[in-house]
Amino acid sequence: MVAHPGLRVLMLPMHVDDLPAVYAIERQSFSTPWPPHAYRAELEANQLAHYICTWVGGRIVGYAGMWLMVDEAHVTTFAVDPAWRRRGIGDRLLVALLDAAVQRGARDATLEVRVSNVAARRLYEKFGFRPVGVRPRYYSDDGEDALVMTTLAFDEPAMRRRLDRLRTEIAASPEPEPPDDGATIEAHG
Fold it and tell me: What secondary structure letter does DSSP report for 1?
């Protein structure tokens, strides 16, 4: 086994040029992916939208998006390349998205997640999301219910402490190692 130095993780705004890589992750992550034109419309026309990409070693390995509706950040999408999961990418991506929500004046955040997606639910719970309801038969591919999850208000002391603690843990954690899948690490330029 070859030792690899950790690779620097960057959180950058999503751009139209990023869409091929984003859509490749989308297809691997969701049974009913958004159509390719949806992300372009979000980036070019939706003034409520904010999307970010996670770059590692010159390639996109995750992305997330939200709409800021009045004072609520509604998480519209969140995905990490399957080869890069369980390497801290999701933690870094979610804290960056929540920080962006706070910077844009959001009071709290909400999202929908498949009831069966236990890994995603655990990640969201770690960041302070809690179940507040169910949307029956929300997912069109199989009629699965969606669990609606919401955070405490971002200005609540408990929520501030949680995010501060998670930011500190992330900052202290090593940069992720590349997966052993033969993926080429390209230079970002």
Answer: -
Predicted confidence (pLDDT) per residue in 92-130, tens digit:
999 999 999 999 999 999 999 999 999 999 999 999 999
Q: Looking at 26, 51, 63, 112, which residue is catalytic?
A: 112
Classify domain 9-172 at the CATH class level.
alpha beta
Q: Do 139 and 171 contact (CB within 8 A), yes or no?
A: no
pTM of the model: 0.89
Whether 124 sits among the annotated catalytic residues: the reply is yes
140: which residues sit within 8 A by CB, 6+ positions away?
32
Instruction: Please tell me which residue in 124, 125, 139, 156 is annotated as part of the active site.
Output: 124
Q: Note if 39 is an active site residue.
A: no
Q: How many CB atoms lie within 10 A of CB 44?
A: 9
- Among residues 3, 186, 181, the alpha carbon closest in space to that of 82 is found at 181
